[in-house]
Each structure stands twice: as C-alpha cells, then as structure tokens.
Design brief:
Layout (H helix, E strand, L loop, with lengths): L1 E9 L5 E10 L4 E5 L6 H8 L7 E6 L2 E2 L8 H5 L2 E5 L10 H10 L5 H14 L15 H13 L5 E5 L7 H16 L3 E5 L3 H6 L3 E6 L2 E6 L9
Parallel strand pairs: 3-8, 3-9, 6-7, 7-8
Antiparallel strand pairs: 1-2, 1-4, 4-5, 9-10
Length: about 230
C-alpha cells in the first residue's frame, strides 16, 4: 500500500527531515510512527497525502507515484486517504452532518447516497443523535469522532492519523483508539503518529521509530521504546 525507496526531504532552510528512508506498509496493517519531537514523523506523515513531496527518492501510495504526481491529481489521491488531525480541523459554520457530507459533496456524490453514507458513519462513531449540532457544541472527543467520520465516509484504503489523541483526556483517547481498531479490522490500513506510550504499549501493532530523519526501529508488535 505504501512504499518508500531511499526518500530524502530537505527543506529550503537546509533542515534535512528525512534522510534516506526505506519502508513498506502492506494493505490492512496498523502502524504506529513514534520518535522524539523534530525526528521527522510529521514530514513522514505529510508525504503520504502529498502535503509534502520527496526531495529525492521514490514514494508510492497505492501505486501512485507521490514524487511525480501532478498537483491537479492530488485531490484524486486524497479521496483514497482519510486524514485525522490532533486539532480536528472541522468547519465551524457547518453542523456535524454537513462536515461529514462535505467530503462526499466535493466529489459530486448523489444526495441520496450522501445521506445514507453519512448517517452510517455517524452511527459507527456514536454521533447519529448529534447530526444537527455544531462543532462548538461538542466536546473534544466528540469533535474528534466527527473528524474520524469525515475521514472514512468515502471508504478510503488508508487512514492517516497525526497525534489524534493528543488533545484528549485518557478515557476519551481510549474510545478513539477503539474506533481506530474497528476501522482497521474492517480492512483499512491505519498509520498513526503518536507520543502516547501507554496506547502503543497496550494495543500492540507494528512500530516504526524515526530519529534524525532515519528509521531506527521497525518492529511488529513492538513497544513505544522512549521514556517520558
């Protein structure tokens, strides 16, 4: 599903964020991306949905060449990828239903199909009864559930989560992780950058550790491996 071959990323200010990464992630895997702040995790994640592109090397997402992908084709790539952020990134002037439906409206899905699919995913995340509420009327955990619903409404092959539990209390964080587990067991590849060592050590999956732009550890069923 995801393949990197000798991928480098150097920013205009001279900082080398990725320093020759080689990695393969298979369809259906659940992978944690861990490492200290500034290690290159965010750049690694952003490349998967073409927020960034490699300075050199090859990267493929579902056989799409990220390095050479034309800007006009980026929206097509992102239809296959669900992205969940730490700060939710919901549209504040739209209600819950409208936030989720927006992802289908931009690809011109039929209204009847949109309604059916949106209500299905809101039911999945436990927010069907709050479809008409606005983001500022929801708790942080509920907002993250809306973000997850929006990311999976078009049935993506890959879900990318960047610190999705970072702003949540521990109990809510576990609720969100249980959702990710269910989504993964349904066949979606899940790639999650996180600093939450308790979650990584409890829900064991593949762990890729990045330090100084290099993969220093890649372990199936691994632990977090860092203190603090």
């Amino acid at each position: 599903m995801i393949q990197m071959k000798n991928v480098y990323k150097k920013y205009p200010n001279g900082i080398v964020a990725l320093n020759g990464l080689n990695v393969e992630i298979e369809q259906g895997e659940f992978v944690y991306i861990v490492g200290p702040s500034g290690a290159g995790k965010s750049t690694f994640i952003k490349m998967m949905y073409r927020e960034e592109r490699p300075s050199s090397g090859q990267m493929f997402v579902d056989d799409i060449d990220i390095a050479t992908l034309k800007n006009r084709k980026v929206p097509m790539l992102r239809r296959q990828i669900g992205v969940v952020f730490q700060d939710f990134k919901l549209l504040t002037k739209l209600n819950v239903y409208e936030n989720v439906a927006f992802a289908l409206e931009v690809i011109e899905e039929k209204p009847e199909a949109i309604k059916k699919r949106v209500m299905e995913v809101l039911d999945l995340v436990g927010l069907k009864h709050k479809a008409k509420m606005f983001p500022d009327e929801l708790s942080g955990g509920e907002q993250q559930r809306v973000s997850i619903a929006r990311s999976i409404v078009n049935m993506p092959k890959v879900m990318i989560a960047d610190e999705p539990t970072g702003n949540l209390d521990p109990e809510t964080a576990w609720d969100i992780m249980n959702l990710f587990e269910r989504i993964n067991k349904a066949g979606t590849t899940v790639i999650m950058a996180t600093h939450n060592q308790h979650i990584v050590n409890t829900l064991r999956h593949r762990v890729i550790a990045i330090e100084g732009g290099l993969i220093v550890r890649d372990v199936a069923g691994g632990d977090y491996g860092y203190e603090g």
